[in-house]
Amino acid sequence: MTRGALYPGTFDPATNGHLDLIERGRRLFDHLVVAVARNPSKSPLFDVDERVAILEELVADWADVSVASFSGLVVDFARQRGDQFILRGIRSVTDFDFEYQMALTNRSLAPGVDTVFMMPDARYSFISSTLIKDIVSNGGDVSRFVSPNVGALLEKKLKPR
């Protein structure tokens, strides 16, 4: 039996912090699926197809990582796929409080699916997609926080004129 895991998120946009967790998470599991959420309650900068395409490009060299989009509950998507784990990143105590509550709820809904928490490298522990978008919107440099391709896409959509 393979150990499959989902790494769910909005990834709007994918940051170097996300890539750090993908790279390290793929060593824990036989296959890691980066699961891009279709969340109608959020207004993402990039539509779901753009986010999937960005991530597919970023993980193209890793045969043990794939990208898929999903709607609804992540535990339902995990069960549909037969994945036993959900990988979640924790940057702060605030993240932990929210993620802990979600992990317990998910365990209650799907007892066979466990949540694994990882902290990003310290270089990325303060990075969020929202912060990245704010920096670009105000003319700042995000080259340390995102891939060059993501940076170019952000500038195209957000750079002040």
Description:
The chain is globular and about 50 Å long. Strands 3-2-1-4-5 form a five-stranded parallel β-sheet, with helices on both faces. It has six helices and five strands; from the N terminus they run βαβαβαβαβαα. With 161 residues, the chain is of the alpha/beta class. The longest helix is centred in the middle third of the chain and has 17 residues, at 93-109. It has one domain: Rossmann fold, CATH 3.40.50.620.
Per-chain topology:
Blueprint: E1 4-9, H1 16-25, E2 31-37, H2 48-58, E3 65-70, H3 74-81, E4 85-89, H4 93-109, E5 114-118, H5 129-137, H6 148-158
Parallel strand pairs: 1-2, 1-4, 2-3, 4-5
Summed up, what is this model?
The protein is α/β, with parallel strands linked by helices and 161 residues long. 41% of the residues lie in helices and 18% in strands.
Features:
Rossmann fold, 161 residues, alpha/beta, single chain, globular, 5-stranded parallel beta sheet
* Order of SSEs: EHEHEHEHEHH
Strand content: 15-25%
Name given to the CATH architecture: 3-Layer(aba) Sandwich
Summing up helix and strand content along with how strands pair, one would put the structural category as alpha/beta
Radius of gyration: 16 Å
Strand segment tally: 5
What CATH calls the topology is Rossmann fold
The top-level CATH class is Alpha Beta
Q: Bin the helical content.
A: 40-55%
Main pleated-sheet profile: 5 strands, parallel
Give the uncertain stretches in residue-range form: none
Give the terminus-to-terminus CA distance.
53 Å
* Tertiary shape: globular
Main-sheet strand order equals: 3-2-1-4-5
Supply the CATH superfamily name: HUPs
